[in-house]
Amino acid sequence: MPDLSGIVKAYDIRGVVGEQLDAALVRDFGAAFALLIKPEAPSVVIGHDMRDSSPSLAAAFADGVTSQGLDVVSIGLASTDQLYFASGSLNLPGAMFTASHNPAKYNGIKLCRAGASPVGQDTGLAEIRDTVEQGVPGFEGQRGTVTERDVLADYAAYLRKLVDLSGSRPLKVVVDAGNGMGGHTVPTVFAGLPIEIVPMYFELDGSFPNHEANPLDPANIVDLQAKVREVGADAGIAFDGDADRCFIVDERGEPVSPSAITALVAVRELAKDPGGTIIHNLITSKGVPEIVAEHGGKPVRTRVGHSFIKAEMARTGAIFGGEHSAHYYFRDFWRADTGMLAALHVLAALGEQSGPLSELTSAYSRYAASGEINSTVDDQVAKMMAVKDTFGARSGVEIDELDGLTVQLPGGAWFNLRPSNTEPLLRLNVEAANAEAVQGLVDEVLAIIRS
């Protein structure tokens, strides 16, 4: 039996094309997915990004689905949140072919049940892996059919219905699509709005010739920052490769933290639904729950990762959720993540008032943060224990282990240290009152980890 544990991750399937993923294996994944969801739905909706390998892999997956008697609705080129829209609006399970921000040699599959409900290790992905490893059983009945359907215009109209920009003052916005799917969706979503788009790298190119499509890496937003300053734009937006995440820079070209965006969007959602629940993961700024509570909302803290966020949103009936990684989840979008909808909220908030974006977002940025700092270690558990022992011995320190190690210090500073699930890394995030306090705490923790 093949061992697929290296490519079947916690939330998706991902690997190097030609080495770990090929059409034959993907066909088996399609057939196994069909077996999983056959009792629930008659069809599967499939979309793909702009990587060279994506159309053929999507077709192989469709072949696997139809070989088990289910039909396929192919939406062709799509962002991941466009696939979620199709899954939600058509009430069908879905498969999206993308490796998100990973380099060009990678590809992968994100799966969901009808209504964009996530499929992860504990909700079907392990079962799919086992089926493929053990050999997909044949099907003697009639094959399914494949039909094509373009949902881009419907997706754009749905987003514009959720966020009204018709009354916005005119804005100039630089958008860096990173040669990813933002170049496909942005022109349609923003058509007719009072927003002048200055496009960067809208050409769909899965080789990513300009920079990696990962806006959380500061090196990948340098061009966007420069262009915003050059053209005197009101804001800049960078999308990742499959355009489900967005990253914002202000009129000065300065990055706006995803925590500040989470707080801003949360306040807007609470204005529509007073008293609603807002989900935030434990690495977002503590300013997020503070601001949510001040606006009458109920903040709920959860682990990092979209499956935890979506499960908690379902459990609590939350109206919105945000993560430090620039994933934003909306109840009105089937609890799925959509960077495009978050971007529209930011631009609507900006367009409703006369001040610059830096002034608007400053109200949502209360503390200094380190960002995520990775350290390669030989023994994750031993280093975590060393940090826990060091800080746990101090008076007034509070420690919890909801996700890794979160240490709350007297005076308000805190840090979280988490092990990577796939690499020998520890990930450190620190927040404190000012940059000096952040650096001091970073130095202290890293001295223990890297000793």
Automatic annotation (TrEMBL):
Residue intervals of the Alpha-D-phosphohexomutase C-terminal domain: 372-446
The protein's required cofactors: Mg(2+)
Keywords of the record: Isomerase, Magnesium, Metal-binding, Phosphoprotein
InterPro entries: A-D-PHexomutase_a/b/a-I, A-D-PHexomutase_a/b/a-I/II/III, A-D-PHexomutase_a/b/a-II, A-D-PHexomutase_a/b/a-III, A-D-PHexomutase_C, A-D-PHexomutase_C_sf, Alpha-D-phosphohexomutase_SF
Segments forming domain Alpha-D-phosphohexomutase alpha/beta/alpha: 8-134, 154-253, 261-367
Membership in a protein family: Belongs to the phosphohexose mutase family.
The protein's name in its UniProt record: Phosphomannomutase/phosphoglucomutase
Species the sequence originates in: Amycolatopsis melonis
Taxonomic placement: Bacteria, Bacillati, Actinomycetota, Actinomycetes, Pseudonocardiales
